[in-house]
Amino acid sequence: MTEIAKGLEGVQFTESKLTFINGSEGILLHLGIPIQEWAENSTFEELSLALLDGKLPTATELATFDAHLRENREIPHQLIDVIKAMPRGINPMQALRTAVSYLGLLDPQSEDITPEARRAISIRMIAQFSTIIAAINRAQEGQEPVAPRMDLTHAGNFLYMLTGHEPTSEQARLFDIALVLHVDHAMNASTFTAIATSSTLSDMYSCITSAIGALKGPLHGGANEAVMDMLDEVGTPDRAVEYISGKMDRKEKIMGVGHRVYKNFDPRSRVLRDYAEHVANKEGKSNYYQILETIEKTVVDRLGDKGIYPNVDFYSGTVYSDLGIRKEFFTPIFALARISGWCASVIEYSEDNRLLRPSSVYTGEKDAHYVQIQDRQ
């Protein structure tokens, strides 16, 4: 009997120096550095460059990279026209997938798969993802896209393009931390999909479009949106224990709780919990946070010994909501951060590329013969 690894769980097909996860102990490292240290000390720009190059950058290298990101924030007017022409009410991930694919049509370097080209395209995509997503949000609301500003950080500029108002330094930093926490997470479904596409020697835009398609699925992206739906359903903190206990009694899935890898607290959720509490208290929006706090305690008390704890999606939705981001755009925000991890993983795998060609166990017949259509029952 051949043992089948359902969902490829436990299958190791490549090596990577980018991200390490120890799920049983709740550890997440990028280049050997704990995610908590990245969140506290670094920025989205620095972590993106560190993953692309596989090392901590010097001040000069980071300044150059940051300048390149700022220079490449604008998107072609043809793409803006396409975004404006998209039907209202569509899934924002559909819009993002289409926009990125169209962007590839406008890039004369798109078919170049040399290491130098992959890196240059990656920098442009990292810069332009924020502009695309903000433009999609504005267009879907019937508003004109806001042009990027060169004097703001990556996170601050996105919030500016999204709302038309310059964010406070605290808002920009909070969003920056949220991006840092989502930049990369080892061999998740979307990263694996990007690598699988890349292994055929396809172009970077195809790789990233494939990844977006994988992230769109509710089992990968979208959990933080479902958490917000759950909070609205609970309504008030005093209903939280009864609500969540009922779900556990019925063995129903609790969004934002449990993880395929982590059997301990997701370290990213610990960082976001502190910021969610700070924002909730400052903005007078403690209702959501109190519900989450109650749900977490109830779940951990009953299911913690089974390795079920809150994950990063549990608190991220409340942070995004407090920043004025509509819940329909939570998954595109995920992509806004993960684009750096996708690109870095594709580049790393391309250094020692091998076409991915897994096999399956055949369970069909082996002694059948063709039957003429008029003789079939």
Automatic annotation (TrEMBL):
PANTHER family: CITRATE SYNTHASE (PTHR11739), CITRATE SYNTHASE, PEROXISOMAL (PTHR11739:SF4)
Annotated catalysed reactions: oxaloacetate + acetyl-CoA + H2O = citrate + CoA + H(+)
Known pathway: Carbohydrate metabolism; tricarboxylic acid cycle
Pfam family, one: Citrate_synt
Keywords of the record: Transferase, Tricarboxylic acid cycle
Keyword Transferase attributed: yes
Listed name of the protein: Citrate synthase
Organism: Deinococcus aerophilus
Gene name of the record: gltA
Family according to the record: Belongs to the citrate synthase family.
